[in-house]
Amino acid sequence: MLLTSVATLLATAAVLGLLVWPKLARAELWRATITPLASIIGSGFLVVGPVLIHAFGGWAPLAMLLLCGVAYLFGVTMRRNITDRHQGNNRHALSLHAEMASSWVLALAYVISVTYYLNLFGAFAVRIVAEENQLAGRVITTLVLLLILVLGWFKGFSALEKLEQTSVSLKLAVIAGLLAGLMVFGTDAAFDGALLFNPVQTGGWEALTLMFGLIVTVQGFETSRYLSDEYGAAVRIRSMKLAQWVSTLIYLAYVIFLAYLFSPGQTGLSETAIIDLMGYVAPLLPALLILAALSAQLSAAIADTGGCGGLVRELTHHRVSERQTYLLLVVVGLLLTWAADIFAIISYASRAFALYYALQCAVAALNSVHGDHVLRDRMFFSGMALLGLAMALTGTAVE
Known about the structure:
The protein is an all-alpha fold and about 400 residues long.
């Protein structure tokens, strides 16, 4: 394990150093890419690997590729809408209603995703001192939700903006270290003839709806669309593509290692299963994962809380204040935390984002009135809208 520990530390330190390198930190494309990239791999990275190897065994990498592929196709839609808005293309009257509806759905998705992030925060926080304890995790989540309400109500979140950049750098560095450790661990296993090909446990309709319920693990690329105050359309489109390609490579490498190095029996199926698995790779990895998870989930929750407050205030033309939205968000978050387990919350978030993507696809289809491929574009965007709707209606939780 010494070699894996050394590889983990070196990769973590190298990537952290690269991310704080002033020349890279100031590069416009990278700054525009880091937001969607961090959003995509922020929480999903912690839970999706163990879930996929439990359900799909040796075929887990293919399931991961399909998830990333569907997300990329939804990204095509988002990039088309960025272009249409930038070019001022004629907007179909119905598309304006679909756009408004999608914004409300996005606000709902924010509420659920904040709950998802903070339930992960609670679960990982418990693992600092004890084994899994759902009650303790819920208590911690409750306290953090109330803390966010107090901060948002009395102070605002501007003082915590630097936390997001720090947590993003830490998270990406730890992921690099984890992949480096897995590479060394996997090389040793290959030479020892210890690679595995686990059997599939889930198939047919159950497998499809499970995949639908995991779309939130590859969600986050759409944040590029809402950075128009900072970047032009061309940069936002390029950054979204780059974030999706990089996150796909990271996810595939991660799931390939997990699928062929571990058996489902080595850990229970839980939101913190990755901690137990990484304990086999290097002793320091669980601690690094917990540190990265806590900072990442807290910063993501704060960012989405602020985003939800601003979005609702805009949609209601200032009739509902940001404070009132924060209060509603926390009330809903508390209800979800105590009424559902984290895998159910993940499926709710997935279904909300799937409905948002479906409405965005409808916007793109309705606005496809110009160019040489109008029929092709309308068929594609309409098909994606139907897929998003199917995901929203049938996505299920991990059991």
